[in-house]
Give the backbone structure.
Amino acid sequence: MKTLLYVDFETYYDKDYSLSKMQTDAYIKDPRFEIIGVSVAVGDAEPVWYTAGSMLEYVGYLRGSYDWENSAVCCHNTLFDGFILAHHIGVRPKLWMDTLPMGRMLKPWLKSHSLANLAKEYKLPPKGDEVQAAIGMHRSDMSPAFLAQYGQYCKGDTKICRALALQMMPHIPGIELAQIDMIIRMFTEPQFVGDVPALVLQHKNEVQRKVDLLANAALMKDVIMSNDKFADHLRSLGVEPPRKISPTTGKETYAFAKTDKAFIALSEISPEVEAAVSARIGVKTTIAETRVLRLKEMAERGPLPVYLNFWGAKTTGRLSGGNQMNWQNMPARGPSAGIRNAIMAPEGSTVLVGDSSNIELRVVMAAAMQDDVVAKLASGVDLYCDFASKLFGRTITKADKKERMLGKIAMLSLQYGAGWVKFKEMVRIQSGEILSDESAKRIVDLYRDVHGMVMALHNYCNDVILPDISQGCDLLPVDRHAWAITSNGGFGVAAQPGVVYHNLRREKMIRDGREEMAWVYTMGAEKVKIYGGKVVENLGQYLAGRIVMWQTARFNQRYPVALSVHDEVVAVVKNQDLDEARAYLEECLSLAPPWCRGVIPLSCETGVGQSYGMAK
């Protein structure tokens, strides 16, 4: 059995230089970075506090005192402490562990998974607050008494981390521990490099794009960025600004988001209003500009560390982005599309991308026993073309791009119960086509007519699964194959953490001005509405995620994974190993986990290139 080391660092910070204002890797690589001290506990032994005046002393002590290569290392937020160990100390342990994602997985409904909050949840001694008194203090500023007190505080954090790990680990399957380790290594052992000149050009283009939008709208940036000023500008153009009820505050606010239908519809009034709406969407949404700037700065610091949150999507367990950089959403189209081409493999290596094709769609059809569709998947039928052919009454092929796109949107959205109003809006957003109300209703009705088993699963989840979960009934099959069963206030694959509907209950809600009873559950500070179609969506995303992460972990045993994006596996492979790695990735993505093997017909596509964009 491996030695288990629990580690916690205390580092210098001030009001301007801190993790709350900087990316984690930027903070740790900054010239101001300073270790105040470190606490290490070996197994169940008393933690040891070590403090020194130079990085060289820390390297000597830590590398000389512990057998990292044959040990598992556990921290709370290992993406921080692990990056310090990897970047400054040169440590690569046998296994990385982290009580933060473990907490997210086991108790996703908590408002916070900080060490202090988890200590409270698990009824452990409270975390101290000495770190607050250390703001702006270098080690040389601290008195011996304060430094000793700070050391006790750090040792206390190490003890809490250990106590949490001991309570959590019996409930964490080995496959999940392997995935946590894999995700931490994406950050601590980065494989991508950035094309800085390309990122500089991309940033310049994005800034110019916004300048052009502002010029077309004849507006200043402060008008665009202010809700009130922008509302006044619309009124000056003879348009009353649309409003909505905020789902967060419950209060009325302006409907100025790109997903607000009434706002987008203003574009049809006049060229002046259209320019204003375009400028608002472009300038208010600063993701493209800030993302490329951060990526450029990251590339200037060295290889690109990929920061992902394990179990970041708290209901379904999917990964999410973090560190002010959403690696889960690097656009292939639009203003930010050039970013992918700037994410490169180093010289002598190639980016390899594998995509588990239509995995959610395949999972839902199999879970519902929609056998006619499953048979088509097994024989290689393009389901988008197949449904579009039913819709248009003629054979649709991939050459019919517009018709196939409509079929694709229908197959991917209507499996989760979208109504005609929502479907019509999804078509507008994704394809630009504006359907008539009658056309949207006809498409939805057709889908439901030819996918009766999927709709039956919706009804079963709404009428049976939700009531039984609310009553604490366990071991009830959620899908037709019993891949997921009810347990622990939700459902999941047997012996694995799963979807949790914490405090599931019926409550009165207002919909379209009418009062109705609805199922709701608590997730963090939010009250989330849930119904049959949404349960099927959670089921599909959860099961698809379990399949892809199992495939990813299998591939990772032979070739380190550089990035995981929903149904995608991305690796950086030495050129001489590329053919073998590609064949193995295709093998991994074509094999299902034992619990659903032989039932879901899987398929995959792979691509290679010098950059992420060229490979996919």
